[in-house]
Design brief:
2 domains; 6-stranded mixed β-sheet; alpha/beta; about 400 residues; Rossmann fold
């Protein structure tokens, strides 16, 4: 399929290019020491990503440790509540070991670290799911693990903080700035710049300097590959539309990768938070402009000085002032439509799925769920596949305290 001049038959061979660019987005914008570290990681990844031994080990881990493949669930009662003309389905990444999609790339990154002879993994986390997943991977492979997390998110996501510590990770509280995900990334990069000879920075999304946007997408592509095969097996056809939430965009990149070359409508859902005013949301693709932060060029939210703007979302995993460079590229091409859902809509979806289907979703995933429900109301018939990127145990205390039981 050719879409706006891009041949999706060869897309994954063509993008990113050798310098890590998806069109104008991506690249490596770091100091010389970190450029050497990124080059080392790139060389190591390219060396093993086609290795039968590496692939076989990753497949064994996914089957025996992660519990993959995760299933697709038909959300029949939820579909009926919307009139029943459009059928909603969920790809159940909440059933992946550790409770979210994040383990898909964390096990791959940790396996790469072992191949490179590294002794420690370093990462940032927002909602804590990436931190829990990397702490899990570090424990599995016997690696030291430092997780940087903003003080605001530590308070919001106490269950995940406890899980990281139980798994043996060192959780480093970040107390400068807004004390959320951007500041955690800043702190993790600073720490990595001092330890790159013995450690590897395991970025938690399709962000950062090359090769991370490509590498994380590749590890997450298992979601889309499974989902496409499962949906065809269940229904005999492809979904009319697929939907995933987008902060940095790893779960979305994973799901989308399985369907980019198919006649399927694709939607990425950003957090509108409290509204469209700068500082009240984290919808970078919707409201942002081109800029460089954290070592890559993409679309970002900027303040009056051109610096990364303050952002907000009820979902700690989505409150980041930029998005992965591949998402910016797919938006420019028009292959993926990016839209927004606010806090209240996501909380309504959180409770609706819980009450009608017995599934408590992560508040991040609830953004995709809310959009899928809204989309279904505009369709005469068909099906929508929603990526349920994580489970909502981590969000219960915060949602109940802020919104009460509905």
């Amino acid at each position: 399929m050719i879409f706006n001049g891009v041949d999706f038959d060869t897309y994954f061979n063509d993008y990113p290019d050798k310098d890590g660019y998806f069109g104008p987005y991506g690249g490596v914008f770091v100091d010389e020491n970190l450029k050497k570290a990124m080059a080392e990681i790139t060389d190591a990844y390219y060396s093993i990503c086609q290795s039968r031994k590496f692939i076989a080990e990753l497949r064994r881990i996914r089957a025996e440790f992660q519990g993959r493949p995760t299933p697709i669930s038909h959300l029949e009662r939820l579909s009926d509540s919307l009139g029943g003309k459009v059928q909603l389905y969920a790809k159940r990444e909440d059933l992946n070991h550790s409770g979210a999609h994040k383990l898909n790339h964390c096990m791959g990154e940790a396996l790469l670290a072992k191949y490179m002879g590294k002794k420690k993994v370093i990462a940032e986390t927002g909602a804590g799911q990436h931190g829990v997943a990397l702490a899990t991977a570090a424990a599995y492979f016997g690696l030291a693990c430092d997780i940087y997390m903003g003080a605001v998110d530590i308070k919001k996501q106490a269950p995940n903080v406890a899980r990281m510590k139980v798994l043996g990770a060192n959780v480093v509280e970040v107390t400068h700035g807004l004390q959320t995900l951007k500041e955690a990334v800043d702190a993790a990069f600073e720490a990595y710049s001092k330890e790159y000879e013995n450690a590897i920075y395991c970025i938690g999304s399709v962000l950062g300097p090359h090769p991370f946007p490509m590498m994380v997408r590749d590890f997450q592509s298992v979601v889309g590959i499974e989902a496409r095969e499962q949906f065809l097996d269940m229904t005999g056809h492809l979904p009319n539309a697929i939907v995933a939430c987008v902060g940095g965009g790893s779960n979305a990149a994973g799901l989308f990768s399985g369907f980019l070359n198919d006649p399927v409508d694709i939607y990425g859902v950003e957090p509108l938070g409290r509204g469209a005013k700068l500082g009240d949301h984290a919808a970078s693709l919707t409201f942002g402009s081109e800029g460089v932060m954290h070592g890559f060029n993409s679309i970002m939210l900027k303040d009056e000085n051109g610096e990364p703007a303050p952002v907000y979302s009820i979902a700690s995993g989505l409150d980041y002032p930029s998005s992965g460079p591949e998402h910016a590229f797919l938006m420019d091409l028009g292959r993926v439509k990016y839209d927004v859902i606010d806090d209240d809509e996501s909380v309504d979806a959180f409770y609706k799925l819980s009450r009608l289907e017995g599934i408590i979703p992560a508040i991040e995933s609830s953004h995709a769920l809310a959009y899928g429900m809204k989309l279904a109301k505009t369709m005469d018939h068909g099906s929508v596949l929603i990526n349920l990127s994580g489970r909502g145990d981590k969000d219960l205390d915060y949602v109940i305290e802020k919104y009460g039981i509905r």
